[in-house]
Amino acid sequence: MRTLTGTGVTPLSGLGRVVWYADxxxxxxxxxxxxxxxxxxxxxxxxxxxxxETDLESERERAExxxxxxxxxxxxxxxxxxxxxxxxxxIEDAIEEGLPAEHAVQExxxxxxxxxxxxxxxxxxxxxxxxxxxxxxxxxxxxxxGTDLANLPEGSIxxxxxxxxxxxxxxxxxxxxxFATVLGGRTSHAAIFARSLGLPAVVxxxxxxxxxxxxxELVVDGEAGEVIADPDESVRERAATxxxxxxxxxxxxxxxxxxxxxxxxxxxxxxxxxxxxHGADGVGLFRTEFLFLDRESPPDEDEQYETYRExxxxxxxxxxxxxxxxxxxxxxxxxxxxxxxxxxxxxxxGIRRSLGPDSELFGSQLRALLRAAAGEGSLAVMFPLxxxxxxxESAIEAVERVADDLERxxxxxxxxxxxxxxxxxxxVFVAEELAARVDFLSIGxxxxxxxxxxxxxxxDRVADLHDPLHPPVLRAIARSxxxxxxxxxxxxxxxxxxxxxxxxxxxVGLGLDELSMSAVTIPDxxxxxxxxxxxxxxxxxxxxxxxxxxxxxxxxxxQ
Length: 559
Hints:
The strands form two sheets. The protein has an eight-stranded mixed sheet. The chain has an eight-stranded parallel beta barrel with strand order 10-11-12-13-14-15-16-17, surrounded by five helices. The protein contains 22 helices and 17 strands. Helix 5 packs antiparallel against helix 6 (122-142), helix 17 crosses helix 18 (471-486) and helix 21 runs antiparallel to helix 22 (550-558). Helices cover 44% and strands 15% of the residues. It is globular, with a radius of gyration of 24 Å. It is an alpha/beta fold.
């Protein structure tokens, strides 16, 4: 029996037989340029591009049904890459120089892939997106069938160096018992899709994973972050046992009676049903970007109003927290004319755009939200990527202006609870001043860890630094909690850390009032809250906060 460790992304375990996925296409050497008919090769290329675009649209539709509209939007980005004018020109130039279409595709994509690999954050992940598009074209041009991921043998454990979005979206949870990858992090496309599909998964295992042979019996433990080869009988039995975690429909309390709200992170209305089924108390993060994606113009006020009302109607006794438009960084929207930046995560994004070039969109969104707040249900609105008190005050003034306009127009409305996303060191250092001006704070640990540790999200080279258990990140969380409570504001967490059941007791001890996560982890987190005792959790948090290293933090947390 051999155990390898990585990053677990779902609180699920699976037992099965290894199927290795290595779908590289070997082209061999190109023929002599004199043998190439450039016109014929360009025609082959256009036929392949048309076929690939049709396939991408079909895959996007399937992914929307299975994993949600926001996650499926990655296929829209792939269509843009497929039709990128510069890429097309580079490939056609290579054909003119005497390469057949497939070799020209390989050459045309090589430069952009290398360029994205040298970037940081989610821009680095674009290299995988480009590989996905390149390989799709190559499969069409060469008639290479590849591994049929949608029809793997039942009980398969899929192993791969990396899985692209289209790879992961094809996996059938009825057939695949889990997957593990050499590369990847908790916020990669593969990890996000795994949570949406309810698949046991461990990513970022490292090169040792490649030593596991095809057909070997394997356990993937997405809760412990372990991959266990040739498991003994006790491990097999534990992995094969169906987890029966109670679905708690009512709000949960700790063992000594402290209530903690456990909510769902949503990107689309299609995810509402899963959130309700898994026992969410409400919505702790409703990402509104999906409303603005995959279209030629932004949604109008009425369309947004209907969307927010539908979310509120799903939780008549709960709270729905809507994040205002958060674009920029890795979330491009074509009609917004977002500027190019070498480091978009440190540029114009979130509230910076809402108060600047997207102020009209911001005003329209606020009108829809204030109208929605007048109906049944409890609506809260939070502003993303706030770093200064001035930004928050400007956002609050925008809310007040909209409320005044609606009042003059005789339109029914209400001002909802207002809050701030704590995602930057700047927000942490002025958390007291922010909390004094709003009803709540919500910690986005994905970005907070990125900025505190100067470690780009989804950059495998610094993946360990993105762990929120590093003392600087934990202390930033604790400081934010203290600031909120000192100013009579409640505080939640909607980053990936909130959905890790192994960290529930620690988060209870840190004093969080609300935890929001992917729906699949809600039952486990509620169970963890119910098992926690406030004093013991506080002692655990105190020990973690006094620890000088991540290793010192994880020792007591893992016990």
